[in-house]
């Protein structure tokens, strides 16, 4: 029997200049994190207009950072994550190297 994948909630996002950010929360249905090396938020959108749905809290739709301890089959298996700035880049702050 296959085990169900967990879906990680984006519990907090401090990237307030992103179009999907309202009151330090992300409001697009799902974000994508990372490339092969960095846990950067790939969904970050620096725009003057606001997007997303204020009723929604984002989840992690996909994560490409295989070297994170929470990554399984290129999906995030943490219960929740937070996103913030690291060296001026919007990053997953929950990232933990294996
Ligand atoms: S905690 Fe790890 S697996 Fe989950 S989104 Fe962040 S970098 Fe990806």
Provide an overview of this structure.
With 98 residues, this protein is mainly β. The protein is built from no helices and nine strands. The protein has strands at 9-13, 21-22, 25-26, 30-33, 59-63, 71-72, 75-76, 80-86, 89-92. The strands form four sheets. The chain has a three-stranded mixed β-sheet, with no helix packed on it. Strand 2 (21-22) and strand 3 form a beta hairpin. The radius of gyration is 13 Å and the shape is globular. The structure holds iron/sulfur cluster.
Give a quick rundown of the structure:
The chain is built from no helices and nine strands.
Topology of helices and strands:
Layout lengths: L8 E5 L7 E2 L2 E2 L3 E4 L25 E5 L7 E2 L2 E2 L3 E7 L2 E4 L6
Parallel strand pairs: 1-8, 4-5
Antiparallel strand pairs: 2-3, 6-7, 8-9
Bound molecules: iron/sulfur cluster (SF4).
Q: How many beta-strand runs?
A: 9
Order of helices and strands: EEEEEEEEE
Ligand catalogue? iron/sulfur cluster
Average per-residue pLDDT, rounded, comes to 94
Spans of at least 5 consecutive residues with low confidence = none
Largest sheet: 3 strands, mixed
Number of domains: 1
Biggest sheet strand order reads 1-8-9
Terminal CA distance reads 27 Å
Give the structural class: mainly beta
């Amino acid at each position: 029997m296959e085990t169900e994948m967990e879906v990680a909630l984006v519990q907090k996002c401090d990237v307030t200049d992103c179009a999907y950010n309202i009151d330090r929360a992300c409001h697009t249905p799902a974000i994508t994190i990372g490339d092969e090396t960095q846990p950067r938020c790939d969904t970050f959108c620096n725009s003057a207009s606001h997007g997303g749905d204020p009723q929604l809290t984002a989840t992690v739709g996909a994560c490409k950072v295989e070297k994170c301890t929470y990554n399984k089959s290129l999906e995030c298996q943490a219960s929740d994550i937070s996103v913030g700035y690291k060296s001026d880049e919007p990053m997953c702050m929950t990232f933990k190297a294996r």
